[in-house]
């Protein structure tokens, strides 16, 4: 079994191969966030002096691609994710700078190294820390502008990505529900509602896929970074426009429907002002319903990992218990439309 204390020397050798002999890696620490990928923060010391904080992101050794997770059906592998992050950084979309993507000779597995951005990532602190009150007020507009720049990234700057349209989302949910083995009447009703009321397709753009509170970095000035690009794909822009407003990602601040920090309208206006195509709020609300179903199906499949004995994780069990809560959110949304 791979030992984590071997990572430091392997990382140092990977830097030596690319940037010259004499690098050292210190303060290597695994980050707690991220259940399906491993993330480590560390400092690299250059041969001629200088120190930089960086992030290693990689697939766990022996990782198995789980098609029961709806996000895995259109997500990117680590080399593609590295190329996505580099393209988004070049577009000014608050992505970290990419340092390198690992190859087989590095012995790091499917991995890449990027800069570590400073700031707060925990939603509870972002939404409640008095020191971040000014930043919270700026977030809806800053996130709208950043998303418009992200959606404008030219395809020629991106790696080969999967295209995942609305019908692909609906088909994925149908396949997962049909294969679950237990009735989920609320989700079944909601899926039929989504199939009946689907809006017209739009030309696909580059979509982050998981653009929400919990995947951003905030400092006292506002938005400092966007994280977790592994479900980047080509698809409908509304997947990103609606996902931050799904109730789960407000973290208890239902009085502020956009990401727990403000009104949707401020976010929409900033998106359009930064060059994003005009927004129809009713279409966004449809995708918010779809996003709530997506989160519910994710809770269901994550919980099944625990109940099946595949993963003895309290975190998985707790998330699995949220299925009924999400089912109610889903039905309440439909009832309000």
UniProtKB/TrEMBL annotation:
UniProt domain Aminoglycoside phosphotransferase: residue ranges: 28-270
Xref: InterPro entries: ACAD10_11_N, AGP_Transferase, Aminoglycoside_PTrfase, Kinase-like_dom_sf
GO terms, molecular function: transferase activity
Domain of life: Bacteria
Transmembrane segments: none
Keyword field: Transferase
Gene3D superfamilies reported for this sequence: 3.90.1200.10, Phosphorylase Kinase, domain 1
Pfam families from the UniProt entry: APH
Name of protein: Phosphotransferase family protein
């Amino acid at each position: 079994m791979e030992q984590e204390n071997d990572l430091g020397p392997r990382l140092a050798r990977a830097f030596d191969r690319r940037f010259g002999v004499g690098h050292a890696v210190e303060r290597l620490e695994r980050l707690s966030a991220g259940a399906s990928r491993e993330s480590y923060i560390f400092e690299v010391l250059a041969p001629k002096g200088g120190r930089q904080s960086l992030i290693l992101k990689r697939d766990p050794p022996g990782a198995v691609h789980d098609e029961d997770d709806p996000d895995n059906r259109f997500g990117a592998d680590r080399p593609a994710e590295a190329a996505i992050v580099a393209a988004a950084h070049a577009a000014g979309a608050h992505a970290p700078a990419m340092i390198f993507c690992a190859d087989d000779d590095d012995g790091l597995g499917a991995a890449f190294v990027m800069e570590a951005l400073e700031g707060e990532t925990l939603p509870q602190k972002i939404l409640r820390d008095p020191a971040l009150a000014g930043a919270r007020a700026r977030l809806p507009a800053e996130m709208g502008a950043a998303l418009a720049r992200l959606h404008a990234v030219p395809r020629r700057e991106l790696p080969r990505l999967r295209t995942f349209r609305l019908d692909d989302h609906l088909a994925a949910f149908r396949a997962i529900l049909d294969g679950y083995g237990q009735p989920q009447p609320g989700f079944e009703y909601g899926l039929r509602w989504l199939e009946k009321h689907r809006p017209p397709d739009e030309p696909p753009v580059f979509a982050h896929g998981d653009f929400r509170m919990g995947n951003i970095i905030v400092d006292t000035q506002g938005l400092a970074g966007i994280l977790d690009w592994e479900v980047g794909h080509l698809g409908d822009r509304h997947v990103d426009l609606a996902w931050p407003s799904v109730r789960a990602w407000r973290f208890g601040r239902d009085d502020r429907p956009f990401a727990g920090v403000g009104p949707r309208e401020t976010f929409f206006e900033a998106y359009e002002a930064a060059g994003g195509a005009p927004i129809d709020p009713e279409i966004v609300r449809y995708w918010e319903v779809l996003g709530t179903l997506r989160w519910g199906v994710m809770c269901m499949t994550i919980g099944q990992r625990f109940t099946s004995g595949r993963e003895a994780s309290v975190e998985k069990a707790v998330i699995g218990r949220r299925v009924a809560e999400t089912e109610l959110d889903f039905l309440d949304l439909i009832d309000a439309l």
